[in-house]
Design brief:
It contains 25 helices and 18 strands. The protein is α+β, with helices and mostly antiparallel strands. The protein binds iron/sulfur cluster.
């Protein structure tokens, strides 16, 4: 019998309103394990190249993993995949919360959705039963209202709901998907794919326990990790300060992305720190399914003209910067409001902040006028303008309609040199980490199959000296020697090849990056033990790393089919220039020649052509992907 997984994959065709269940053999699960690897299998097998991402032919796949739902620390995540309407590449985003574990308890390892409905619908899955229900009455409603109505009409407060708000319905290209109002499949515009299918929500309820191979061992390791949470400085900081903990270090170093990346120096940075957030608007902390770390912020503002509802959680580091210093804003209360609006409408806060900051720079340089903005004074630091622009983007009104296409397309339409004010990779806006001070993150921005992303590998600082967590705790992967965060030589390239695969394994398995080394308290050995105890498979890190590498090659081939080449593995121009202003003024530009050399070496280390970055037939055979050799030839 299967342990950890159910053996059931649900297929839904929204055009014909039919559904059916597939029961793949054990070897299928042992090859793909879940998440992006499982999703890419279906995307490569069932989707034709050059499918319009917003057409019924795009597949929308929700995939937890073979271990999701086990009552163990920091394993709550599930992946959503589709061809991205933002990048045109393989689209992917992971979310925590409760939805993934609930789907497993409801009897399914994944949902593969094709087609589109003529009228709004939502899926209701309860202990193996599947129903497609009308959602016309929900269309246009924000996430809080939708959740309340669905729970009421199903008469079940415990049902877990993944859904889109108006931004997804309106096909904003960076719309996201949320569960429980505050856990997001954040990037790549997958909410717009859901909107294009007229699928408002997926409500799931499961009461069946997930069968575990060795329940006692899972419980024992969970207790051991839980005991150490407050003794480990990394997990303790996550509990006390959340991801905003890093604001202070970046602000003091002078690398806090500000004013649309024109500087890393933000003189009011103190106002954005986790300590200030804790003192002013923090109401409490929350966590995800079975996780003892509880790193999530919950904030509240209750002022006569500004109210922020704690039901929508609170801003993470990325949001504080993208809707804060990047737009010249230093008021946490307004940033919390901007975060709440994005969450109600389901818009990725990184891309939202980035497109607004881009428009602010265009306005400053005279490329956009008050006529274009509908009378909004779109200057850096204008807090109310940010809130108004969020409304306009979500509802695609005026300039908001243009910005809803993402900064890459918006810059092309604005013209007049606007392209020099955008910062993106493969069409996706970059996150709030500066690769000039962590070159490995830059390599990951360039190479990520789904556009710039900061969660594609652990960051350079965890490997900087002999006492760093990564050096002390990751010897199992032959990581023995420290490398400077600003180095871009051979050792850095080799290190990040391993780290990329390691965190890809986390993505596949639904493991939270904030739960295990090098970012947190759980060890590699403990995670491996949990995986073995859940599945009963005598797996090793060797096998898991091959699963991760397999999915990276599958994604590379998916993108090749869509016309992406090594020319799309880029870094925004701004990082080839020195910092302007603050403590780092005039320093730290990345050398373009060195970066190109690093990319070529990385291709070779991956078993790809050194000049074109195309997986070789030998590499595909090595990973059991010989079925993709013909795709590469084509
Ligand atoms: S560490 Fe934080 S984000 Fe990760 S699973 Fe735990 S509570 Fe959720």
């Amino acid at each position: 019998m299967p342990y950890g997984y159910t053996g059931n994959i649900l297929h839904v065709d929204l055009s014909s309103k039919k559904h059916w269940i597939e029961n793949p053999p054990e070897n299928f699960y042992r090859t793909y394990w879940g998440g992006r690897a499982l999703a890419l299998y279906y995307m490569l097998k069932k989707m034709k190249p050059h499918t319009d991402p917003l057409s019924p032919n795009n597949l929308l796949i929700f995939a937890p993993s073979v271990i999701t739902g086990a009552p163990a620390p920091a394993i709550p995540r599930y992946t959503v995949c589709a061809k991205s309407p933002l990048t045109g590449a393989q689209g992917e985003a992971e979310a925590g919360g409760w939805w993934g574990p609930e789907l497993k308890k409801a009897g399914f390892d994944a949902i593969i959705i094709k087609g589109s409905s003529s009228t709004p619908v939502y899926l209701y899955i309860e202990d193996g039963k599947v129903e497609i229900k009308g959602a016309t009455h929900l269309w246009g409603k924000d996430t809080g209202e939708t959740q309340k109505i669905i729970k009421n009409e199903l008469a079940d407060d415990k049902v877990r709901i993944a859904q889109i708000g108006p931004a997804g319905e309106n096909l904003v290209r960076f719309a996201n998907i949320v569960n429980e109002l505050k856990h997001f499949n954040g990037r790549n515009g997958l909410g717009a794919v859901m909107g294009s299918k007229k699928l408002k929500a997926i409500a799931v309820r499961g009461t069946k326990p997930i069968e575990l191979y060795n329940k006692e061992r899972v419980s024992q390791i969970t207790k051991e990790i839980t005991k150490r949470v407050m003794d480990n400085p990394l997990s303790r900081d996550l509990r006390k300060l959340g991801t905003p903990a890093v604001v202070r270090g970046f602000y003091e170093a002078g690398c806090l992305p500000s004013y649309n990346w024109t500087t890393g120096y933000f003189k009011e940075g103190e106002n954005l720190t986790a300590e200030t957030l804790n003192k002013t608007i923090l109401k409490g902390t929350k966590g995800c399914y079975a996780c003892p770390i509880r790193c999530k912020r919950v904030v509240e503002v209750d002022e006569p003209n500004l109210k922020v509802d704690p039901a929508y959680g609170g801003p993470e580091y990325e949001t504080i910067v993208s809707l804060g210093s990047l737009c010249g804003i230093s008021d946490l209360k307004y940033i919390a409001k901007a975060n709440e609006l994005c969450n109600k409408y389901t818009m990725d806060t990184i891309s939202t902040g980035m497109v607004i900051a881009f428009a602010m720079q265009c306005y400053q340089e005279g490329l956009l006028t008050k006529e274009d903005t509908g009378g909004i004074e779109l200057t850096f630091g204008n807090r109310k303008a940010v809130l108004k622009m969020i409304e306009k983007i979500a509802h695609r009104e005026g300039l908001g309609g243009l910005l809803s296409q993402g900064s890459y397309l918006a810059a092309q339409k604005i013209g007049k040199g606007a392209e020099k004010f955008i910062h993106q990779v493969k069409g996706q806006e970059i996150p709030m980490h500066d690769p000039r001070l962590k070159t490995g993150v830059g390599l990951q921005y360039a190479l990520s199959d789904y556009g710039a992303d900061h969660m594609k590998a652990a960051h350079d600082s965890f490997f900087k000296d002999k006492d760093s967590v990564g050096i002390k705790e990751m010897k199992d992967l032959c990581i023995l020697e420290p490398v400077s965060p600003t180095d871009i030589g051979e050792k850095k390239v080799a290190l990040f090849k391993v780290l990329d695969i390691y965190w890809t394994v986390f993505d596949i398995l639904g493991v939270c990056d904030f739960g295990y080394v090098p970012r947190s308290v759980g060890t590699m050995e403990e995670l491996l033990e949990i995986i073995r105890a859940v599945t009963g498979w005598r797996t090793t890190w060797f096998e898991l790393m091959r699963v991760g590498e397999r999915s990276i090659n599958m994604a590379r081939i998916f993108n090749l089919r869509e016309g992406f080449t090594s020319k799309d593995d880029t870094l925004p121009e701004v990082f080839y220039h020195n910092f302007q202003g603050g403590p780092l003024d005039g320093q730290e530009a990345i050398d373009k020649g060195d970066f190109q050399k690093a990319l070529k070496l990385r291709y070779q280390l991956m078993g790809w052509g050194p000049d074109n970055g195309i997986p070789t037939p030998a590499k595909l055979i090595d990973l059991g992907l010989d079925w993709l050799i013909d795709e590469v030839k084509r």
